[in-house]
Specification:
The chain is an all-alpha fold. Helices cover 68% and strands 0% of the residues. The longest helix is centred in the first third of the chain and has 23 residues. The termini are far apart. 36% of the residues are buried.
Length: 187
């Protein structure tokens, strides 16, 4: 049996997972699961980097899209973005920021964008066993201490195991802290 447009269905699943990860801190502080973040949250360069990093890593590693052609990857990303932000503001923002080599280079030079991608990639790398256990990353070192001392830490993959708990600690120390400092009182 041939699966037509399977990458579009995968994009929706990636969008659901990414949306859940960015909404989780708000839900923990009392927002509803259907909470839709305002456009300025989604265009915060750190958050945008985290979202695009999440979509890219899930597509490539969790759903086997690493060798897909550009069109298939692009369509998958667009489907994911529509689920992350049902207003499609994020989709328009993304289309503007990846339209041409100059814009992509400028985006990749943005420190907050890179920090968001790096923080997500660290959490993802831990959760999927892509980082070496003795990786010297200082966030990972702090996350190990946090994961050891906290039984109720939310796991990264929705299931509880050592890697997932450690990844959850990375997210708590990075993404959740960014949201707590910059966004919790604004939305």
């Amino acid at each position: 049996m041939i699966f037509f447009n399977r990458h579009l269905k995968i994009g929706k699943e990636i969008g659901k997972a990414t949306r859940q990860s960015i909404i989780q801190p708000f839900v923990a502080y009392g927002k509803d699961h259907d909470f839709v973040p305002p456009p300025e949250f989604l265009t915060d360069m750190y958050i945008y980097g985290y979202i695009t990093g999440s979509i890219g890593n899930l597509m490539d590693y969790a759903f086997g899209g690493k060798n897909w052609n550009k069109q298939k990857k692009g369509e998958c990303i667009m489907e994911a973005l529509k689920v992350v932000d049902p207003t499609e503001f994020l989709l328009m923002f993304h289309a503007e920021n990846v339209d041409g080599t100059e814009k992509i280079l400028k985006l990749n030079e943005n420190k907050e964008f890179k920090r968001g991608i790096n923080d997500l990639t660290t959490a993802f790398g831990v959760a999927y066993g892509l980082l070496k256990p003795d990786d010297p990353d200082p966030i990972l070192k702090s996350a190990r201490k946090l994961a050891e001392g906290t039984k109720s830490l939310t796991s990264f993959l929705g299931k509880s195991n050592e890697r997932s708990s450690l990844a959850g600690a990375v997210v708590a120390l990075t993404f959740h802290q960014h949201i707590k400092k910059k966004w919790l009182n604004k939305v």
